[in-house]
Automatic annotation (TrEMBL):
It is a multi-pass membrane protein. It is found in: Cell membrane. InterPro entries: UPF0750_membrane (IPR051461), YitT (IPR003740). It comes from Paracoccus simplex. Keywords: Cell membrane, Membrane, Transmembrane, Transmembrane helix. Pfam families: YitT_membrane. Its main location: membrane. The chain crosses the membrane at residues 19-38, 44-65, 77-99, 111-129, 150-171, 177-194. It comes from the Bacteria. This is YitT family protein.
Amino acid sequence: MSDNGSPARHSVIEDAQGLAYGSFMAAVGVLLLTHLGFVTGQTAGLAILISYATGWGFAPVFFAVNLPFYWLGYRRLGLAFMLKSFIAVGAMSILVALLPRGLEFGPVHPAVGALLVGLLTGSALLALFRHGASLGGVGIVALYLQDATGFRAGWTQLIFDALIFAVALTLRDGTTVAWSFLGALVLNLVIAINHRRDRYIV
């Protein structure tokens, strides 16, 4: 708490390290995920499917896929959120392109890989959320639709992810998609259990 009793806010340096940590860990998670040929949900999942289908690199596709969502982010959650999210997405895209020069994966059992992907990306998103940023636009669209129509944001995200995994079945075998689903489940459990605004002050 601050001296006047109001909730203490993160400093600029704290926000910077939070964005750096989140972007780095998310990039490592994506590299492991694509190493295993997995898929995931949200805009990262869309970018991965496009990358698999076209052979284009994930980094530029992910950066481009997120561009249309920044205006909604600004309208719904403010300028600071939009700028931090833009920085996080840009940093992650750059890291995904550069990290393979210094990081390589050997054989990884898909069960271990699914758990690691979920835990890495879950911790990354927690860091970004707690510092007022995100890595994807689907959640923003979901909140916008909920405000405009009353349709629950959670259902919008669930429908989008279901479509992503349905399309993934045309590009990947069922076993790989099943392991991918385990990774996505672990990720969402990490967020659901730990992202509680009533249990921390930011």
